[in-house]
Amino acid sequence: MLTVAMTTYAANEIVVYTARNEQLIKPLFDAYTKETGTSIKFLTDKEGALLQKLKAEGANTPADMLITVDAGNLWQATKLGLLQPVQSQTLLDNVPAHLRDPANQWFGLSVRARTIIYNKDKVKPAALSTYEDLGNPKWKGRLCLRTSKSVYNQSLVAMMIQEYGEPKTEQIMKSWVANLATPPISDDARAMAAVAASQCDITVVNTYYFGGLMKKKPNLPLAIFWPNQDTKDSGVHVNISGAGITRHAKHQAEAVKFLEWLSSEKAQNLFADVNMEYPVNPKVKPDATVAAWGEFKQNPLNVVKAGELQTAAVKLMDRAKYK
After folding, report:
1. DSSP labels for 83-106?
2. Which residue in 74, 90, 165, 320 could disulfide with 173, CB within 3.0 to 4.6 Å?
């Protein structure tokens, strides 16, 4: 709960609006306060609600930083004029170019891959290859997908539009829909449960959902497959959780220091490990459980396209009858 007054601002504090759950983010706030003495007040809410709150508060906002998930949401914050550019060599060194805003208004802090999960009892990994191949007739009645209303799938399709163009991407989406074993499912965890229960054999989810499920139920017959890994292919679709400094930050310098710290090797282990994500800083190794899933080649397209092409992706999925 946010307790900062709207008109008084202590010098040695930062106010953060975050769409990440408190249990995932508070350990980082506590660690930073312990290390620096800077207190962090925070408000948690859904992405859309936080963006609207920032917009309504305008110059009166107490927020210095926005932390949220998915590049599409961060891009939306820039389009609403809610963030400001940050000049920081530390951030440029720690965050790869394709995982930050080209205008430096936001920076990725952890990486999540949206990849294929399959039933080990029903599918041999040699039968899998690319995202596009999920539309192959051999998978008819064997594919489960999360609903097109998910921002994660909207971002995936947006990145495919950037890579392949709309006509080919629409053809791929139609082929996926033709292979569905069930109507689109409400979330990634339920999609994996359907695969485990043999309602379908394959699905596409964010890696941390897989990690969380297998931690609770290690005996499920599920495994990860990394698509599009051939030299001619671009790699696995990745997205981020990330942060930016608000346009009307009252503690700008302190907030930039905190953002730099979040990208540091020390903080990256904390930030990524707590949600079984990948560190954005290439100098930091993932948690042992995450590393055990194997290495993969990331798609190098800048994730800003997940936002820029989001509207086009939604319209395309509608045309493809992907509900």
Report:
1. B-----HHHHHHS-GGGB-TTSS-
2. 320
Residue appearing with tokens 């998910």: 150
Q: State the number of CA atoms in the 13 A half-sphere of 109 facing the CB.
A: 31
pTM: 0.93
Please give the C-alpha separations between residue 89 and each of 24, 50, 71, 94, 284, in angstroms, as whole numbers: 27, 28, 21, 9, 18
Say whether 162 sits in a helix, a strand or coil: helix
Residues 6 or more apart in contact with residue 85 via CB below 8 angstroms? 103, 104, 105
Q: Which residues contact 218 (CB under 8 A, 6 or more apart)?
A: none
Q: At what angle do helices 252-262 and 22-36 cross, to 10 degrees?
A: 110
DSSP state of 15: E
User: In angstroms, rounded to a whole number, what is the distance separating the alpha carbons of residues 187 and 252?
Assistant: 37
What's the pLDDT score for residue 313?
A: 98
- Strand locations in the chain (E): 13-18, 39-44, 65-69, 107-119, 202-206, 222-225, 238-245, 278-279
What CA dihedral angle connects 137, 150, 227 and 167, to 10 degrees?
A: 60
Widest CA span of the chain, in angstroms?
A: 63
Distance, in Å, from the CA atom of 176 to the CA atom of 143, rounded to the nearest integer, reads 8
Between β-strands 202-206 and 107-119, what pairing exists: parallel, antiparallel or unpaired?
antiparallel
